[in-house]
Amino acid sequence: MLARVSSLDFLVSYGLVHVGLAFLAPAIDAFGWEPVLAVCALV
Fold it and tell me: Do 36 and 24 form a contact (C-beta atoms < 8 A)?
């Protein structure tokens, strides 16, 4: 059971990386790099 949970966690985490990268450039354009970097550090 733990292997299934671990593989699902891996799949979701690496699947959402592309979504985060897609929103990174527009967020930097809208807010600047310093606030975006601070939010990324907190997450």
Answer: yes
pLDDT in tens, 9-30: 888 888 888 888 999 999 999 9
Token readout for 14 is 């690496």
Q: What is the pTM of this model?
A: 0.60
For 40, the token pair is 């990324």
Can you tell me whether residue 1 is helix, strand or coil? coil
Which pairs with CB-CB distance under 8 Å and at least 24 residues apart come from 34-37?
Answer: none
Amino acid at 13: S
Q: Note the helical H segments in the chain.
A: 2-31, 33-42
